[in-house]
Design goal:
nine-stranded antiparallel sheet, two-stranded antiparallel sheet
């Protein structure tokens, strides 16, 4: 039994050492996202069968595909920088708290797919400010990744929301009525030419 465990642990350490992104899920497989900033502001997004994203928590609204894609790409495609393994952390007398990765972390993101899920925790910025310390759920390693991964995480649900006032295609709009209190009513009409 000990040999089986050691063989499994050797394979696990080897796969962690060759890992090159925070999440091993394929970007197109992601169907759900859960975002938390400083333990609060929990935002949940889901992707429907046609590929459109929606915010489902803290309120229901259509989500803008661009910031969602930016977040998924940052977690699944952005290459890792440095890594400290469990044994390196132990030999240096360091733990997750030294990197802002214990207790309430700066941000956490869970990507959900049919075949599994992957959660990433973000801690303190590196001394240069160009990287952020991160760890992946289930691994006892500390990674660095470009700060753009942290910047891709929306602060709240409004950072994911569709922000257009009019959702119809421009060519479908024939007129637009504008009214401001205590101001004259304005109607804009598209000309035939």
């Amino acid at each position: 039994a000990v040999l089986v465990f050691l063989s499994w642990r050797t394979r696990a350490v080897a796969s962690e050492a060759t890992r090159n992104t925070l999440c091993t899920l394929a970007p197109e497989a992601v169907e759900g996202i859960e975002i938390s900033r400083n333990g609060t502001n929990i935002v949940k997004l889901t992707r429907n069968d046609s590929g459109a994203w929606s915010i489902v928590n803290p309120y229901f609204a259509p989500a803008d595909a661009a910031p969602v894609a930016r977040l998924v790409d940052a977690l699944t495609l952005l290459p890792l920088g440095d890594m400290r393994t469990e044994s390196e952390l132990a030999s240096l007398g360091e733990d997750f708290a030294d990197f802002g990765l214990a207790g309430t972390v700066r941000a956490s993101v869970k990507l959900i797919a049919k075949d599994g899920e992957s959660q990433v925790f973000f801690g303190a910025l590196s001394a240069s400010g160009k990287d952020v310390y991160a760890r992946a759920d289930g691994l006892v390693n500390v990674f660095t990744v470009g700060v753009e991964a942290l910047e891709a995480i929306p602060v709240d649900a409004d950072g994911c929301r569709v922000r257009t006032l009019i959702s119809s295609a421009g060519e479908q709009i024939s007129s637009l009525d504008l009214h401001k209190p205590e101001a004259p009513f304005i109607r804009l009409v598209r000309s035939a030419s």
